[in-house]
Amino acid sequence: MTPNQIVFLVLAFIAVMASAGVVVFGANAVRSALFLVLNFFVLGFIYFTLGAQLLGITQIMVYAGAIMVLFLFVIMMLQLHHGPQLKKYQDAKRPLAWLIGLGIFCLVFTQVIQKLSMTSQSPVTDEYGTPKAVGLVLYSTYSWPFEVTSVLLLIGVVGSILLAKRRI
Amino acid sequence: MNYVLPTVEWPTVMPVLIVVVTGILAVFIEMLWPKRNNNVIVGLGLVGLGLAGSSVLKQFGAPDGVTFGDMVVRDQVGLVMQLLLVGICFVAFLFSEGYLREKQIPFAEFYPLALWATAGGMLMVTTTNTLELFLGLEVLSIALYCLAGMSRQESKSEESALKYFLLGAFASAVFLMGIAYLFGATGSLDLNAITSVWPATTPMHHTLILFGVGMTLAGLGFKAALVPFHQWTPDVYQGAPTNVTGFMAAASKVAAFGALLRVLMAAAPLQEFWFPAMFWICILTMTVGNLAAVVQKDVKRILGYSSIANAGYILVAVLSHVKSPDKVGLGSTFYYLLAYSMMTLGAFAVVSLSAKGGKEGTRLQDIHGLWSRAPFAVVCLVVFVASLIGIPPSAGFVGKLFIFNDALAAGLTPLAIVLAVNSVISVYYYLGILQAAFVSEEGAVRNQSAKPGIGLNIAVLVCAFGVFWASFNATWVQKTATGTSVSQAQTVSTTTSPDRMGPSNPE
Fold first, then answer.
1. Best interface-test mutation with A: which of B25, B190, B207 has the largest number of A CBs within 10 A?
2. Neighbour-count burial of B279, counting CB atoms closer than 10 A to its CB (0-12 exposed, 13-18 middle, 19+ buried)
3. Does A168 sit within 8 Å of B106, measured CB to CB?
C-alpha cells in the first residue's frame, strides 16, 4: 500500500463513519447535522489530497460552513422533537415510490453506469484545479459569468425582501 | 500561464447591461422614496427597456461574432430572442402597476426582479457556453420563484412559489449534471465542442455525451414545459399573481427555447439518438396540453395548459429546422414565438382584470360579465383567443401554417398531422373563455373585476395590434428575423411594410 492509499483510506473511513452517524441518530436532527458537518469536512480533505485545493477550501467554507449553519438554524426553528408524528402519513405512495425509484435505478445502472465505468479519464496538467489556475481563468475568460453572478446575488437580496413583505 | 484580459465588444453586451443597470436604479429609487406609488419606477423601467431594445435593433445586420472570452455570442437567434424578451417585459410592465394595486400588493421590488429575470433570459439566448447558460437560467428562475410568491396573503401564491422552486431546483440540478457529463466528455464548457468532438471519439465517450445531452435537454424541457416535465405548469400559473404568470409564460418560454435551440443544433450530429425521443415528447406535449385543458374550469389553468400545447407547436418548428437546416429556416420558430408571446401576454393581461380590492378569482365564472365592465379589453381578448385558436387573419394562424409547412418540408408529416388535429381540439376550451367573458352578470357568482387602467388598455392594444400586424407582414417579419430571404412556400404574403419596428415592442 502506498502512503497515498493509506491517507485516502483513513479519510474515507472517517467520511463513511460520519455519514453512518447521520443516519444512526435519526431521532436527533441536530446530532445528525453535526455528523454531516464532519462528513463535509473530511470530503474537503479528500479534495486536498487530489490536488484540488480550491475545491477543498470551497467545500469546507460553503458546505461545512454556510450551508450547515443554515441547516442547524432551520432545524432549531422547526423544533422537530416529536419523531413519531412524522410517521403518521404513510400510505400506498411510499411502496410505489420505492418501486419506481428501484426501477429507475435499474434502468440507469444497466444502461448508463455500466458503460460509464469503462470510460477513461482525460489527462489533466499538474496545475489543474490549483487556486492560481482557477483564478487566472476566472478573472479573464470567465469574467463575464463572474459579473453575472453578482446579479444573481442581488436577486437573492431583493427577492428575500419581497418575500418577507406582507402588506404595505 | 499568463493573464490575458478578454477583448470586449461593448455593443454586444450593451442590451443586457442596460437592463441590469435599470433594475439597480429601480432599487435605488425605491430606497430613496419608499412606499410611494411606483409610477417613477415603471417609467424608468420602460425607458430602460426601450433603450435596451434599440441597442438590440442597432445590431441587426451586424456580422456574427463572439466576445468576452467567447462567453457572449452575437447572432440572429440571440438578437431576435433578446428583442422578444425586452418587448415581453415592456408589455408586462404596462399592465402590472394597475393589477398590483388592485391586488393590494404594490411592491416596487417587482420591477427590478422582472428586469433581472429578463436579463437572465437574454444571457441564456446569447451564449453557447454551458456555464453562462446555467447562470442565465438561474438568474431567470430565481427571480421568477420570488415573483411567483409575492402575494403572501394568498396560500395559493405561496404554494405556487414553493412548487416552482422545488421542481425548478431539481430541474436545475439535472441540467447541471448534464453539463458536468458534457464537460467530462468534451473537456470544454462550450456547446460547440459536442459537434467537433463527437465524430472523433470512441463509443465509450459517446455514452458520456449522450447522457449529458439527455440531461441538459431534460433540464431545459422543464423550463419550456415540455410534457414529461410539465406538471408544475398549471399549479404555478394558477397561483402566481397574474401579471407574473403572463411574464413567466412568455419570457421563460422564449429563453428556454433559445437555449434548447442551441443545444439541439450543437447536438445535431448525434440526431439519430435523441431525435426519436424529442419526436415523441413533441407529440405528447401538443396532445396532453390540449386534452388536459379541455376539462379545466379555471382561466389561468386553461391558459397554462394552452402554453404547454403551444410549446409543442414551437418544438415542431425547432425540430423541423434541426432535422433539415438547409430546407427549413428558423423563421417560423421566431414568428411563432412572437405570436405566442403577444397572444399569451395579452390574454393574461385581460384576465388580470378579475382582481379587485385584494381579492382575485380566476375561475371561469369569475370573469362573467367582463364584457359590460371592460368592453375594450374583451374585444382584445377576442383577438387573442382567435389567434390562439388559429382563425385566419391573425398571427396565430399564420404561425401555425408556417410550422405546418416546415414540418412537411422536413419530412415530419406525423408532427404536422398531430399539430392540425390539436388545433381543432383547442377550439373547445378557448371558446369557453370567451363565452364566460360574454355571459351577462346575472347568475355570476362574484362580480369583482376592476376597471381597466390606461396601462392595461395600452398593453392589450399593443398586443392585439401586434397580432394583426404580424399576420399581415408575415413575410417581412420572417425576413427581418432570419436576416435572409425567405425561401419557403408561403400562402400568406402581403405587401412589405416600410415602417420600422418600434424600439421597444416585439412587433
1. B207
2. middle
3. yes
Residue A82 grid coordinates: 416529536
Whether A145 sits inside 8 A of B135 (CB atoms) is: yes
- Give me the residue spans of the domains in chain B: 10-487
Partner B contacted by A149 (CB < 8 A):
yes
Tell me if A159 and B187 make a contact (CB, 8 A cut-off): no
pLDDT tens sequence for chain B (507 residues): 577 788 888 888 999 999 999 999 999 998 888 766 788 899 999 999 999 999 999 988 888 888 888 889 888 889 999 999 999 999 999 988 888 888 888 888 899 999 999 999 999 999 999 999 999 999 999 999 999 988 888 888 888 999 999 999 999 999 999 999 898 888 888 998 888 888 877 777 788 888 889 999 999 999 999 988 998 999 999 999 999 999 999 999 999 999 999 999 999 888 888 999 999 999 999 999 999 999 888 889 999 999 999 999 999 999 999 988 888 888 889 999 999 999 999 999 988 888 777 777 778 777 777 777 788 888 899 999 999 998 888 889 999 999 999 999 998 999 999 999 999 999 989 988 888 888 766 554 455 556 777 888 888 888 888 888 888 888 888 877 777 543 333 333 333 333 333 333 443
Query: Using CA of residue A8, residue A10, residue A13, residue A18, what is the dihedral sign?
Result: negative
Closest CA to B87 of B307, B384, B342, B347: B342
Cβ(B106)–Cβ(B97) below 8 Å? yes
Question: What does the angle CA B126 – CA B127 – CA B132 come to, to the nearest 5 degrees?
Answer: 120
Q: Annotate A71-85 with b (16+ C-beta within 10 A) or e (fewer).
A: bbeeeeeeeeeeeee
Q: Which of A133, A163, A165 minimises the CB distance to B1?
A: A133
Q: Is A107 on the interface with B (CB under 8 A)?
A: no
User: B252 with B223: CB under 8 angstroms?
Assistant: yes
The answer to whether the predicted template modeling score (pTM) of the entire model surpasses 0.95 is no
- Binary contact (B129, A140; C-beta < 8 A): no
- Measure in Å the smallest separation between the Cα of B403 and chain A Cα atoms: 35
B110, B128, B146, B213: which to substitute to probe chain A, counting the most A Cβ within 10 Å? B146
Compare CB distances from B138 to A152, A154, A166 and report the shortest one's residue: A152
CB contact under 8 A, B142 and A115: no
Q: Which string of DSSP letters, residue by residue, matches B421-475?
A: HHHHHHHHHHHHHHHHHHS-STT-S---PPPP-HHHHHHHHHHHHHHHHHHHTHH
Helix (H, G, I), strand (E, B) or coil at B298: strand
Look at the block and give the residue holding cell 396601462: B455
